[in-house]
């Protein structure tokens, strides 16, 4: 039984390392392929003309990988604010699963917090589409004066 646990732990470690390698490959790809030149169109924006909460995320990540925090914030400020928390959650979740094989992290997060985050994302999606001055700054690149 103990040998079986070790093998399954090895498999979990390899799985997390494989996921990390794919993530790193994606970061390397994005670092060298500018999304302003090679755009991935947002389906919601293409069909409706409305910015979704994720619009500008590719350009924001590209700018972040190049160390341009202000530009990244200009493309999607909400993503830049949530990114450290998302990274911390994913790292803790992967480490917990890799070590124990179970999920102890999700039970520590309150449902109220998740509902608050969901409401904040939806409100951000609405507010960034209001065509009046302070809200136009939330459109992708709005602070930079370009889209």
TrEMBL record:
<dbReference type="Pfam" id="PF10825">
    <property type="entry name" value="DUF2752"/>
</dbReference>
<feature type="transmembrane region" description="Helical">
    <location>
        <begin position="72"/>
        <end position="92"/>
    </location>
</feature>
<keyword id="KW-0472">Membrane</keyword>
<feature type="transmembrane region" description="Helical">
    <location>
        <begin position="12"/>
        <end position="32"/>
    </location>
</feature>
<keyword id="KW-0812">Transmembrane</keyword>
<dbReference type="InterPro" id="IPR021215">
    <property type="entry name" value="DUF2752"/>
</dbReference>
<protein>
    <submittedName>
        <fullName>DUF2752 domain-containing protein</fullName>
    </submittedName>
</protein>
<feature type="transmembrane region" description="Helical">
    <location>
        <begin position="113"/>
        <end position="137"/>
    </location>
</feature>
<keyword id="KW-1133">Transmembrane helix</keyword>
């Amino acid at each position: 039984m103990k040998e079986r646990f070790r093998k399954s732990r090895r498999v979990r470690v390899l799985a997390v390392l494989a996921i990390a390698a794919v993530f790193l490959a994606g970061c390397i790809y994005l670092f060298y392929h500018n999304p302003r030149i090679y755009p991935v169109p947002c389906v919601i924006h293409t069909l409706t003309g409305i910015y979704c909460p994720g619009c500008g995320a590719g350009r924001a990540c590209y700018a972040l990988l190049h160390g341009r925090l202000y530009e990244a914030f200009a493309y999607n400020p909400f993503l830049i604010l949530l990114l450290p928390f998302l990274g911390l959650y994913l790292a803790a979740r992967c480490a917990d699963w890799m070590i124990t094989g179970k999920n102890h992290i999700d039970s520590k997060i309150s449902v109220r917090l998740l509902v608050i985050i969901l409401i904040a994302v939806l409100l951000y999606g609405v507010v960034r589409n209001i065509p009046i001055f302070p809200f136009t700054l939330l459109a992708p690149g709005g602070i930079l004066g370009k889209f």
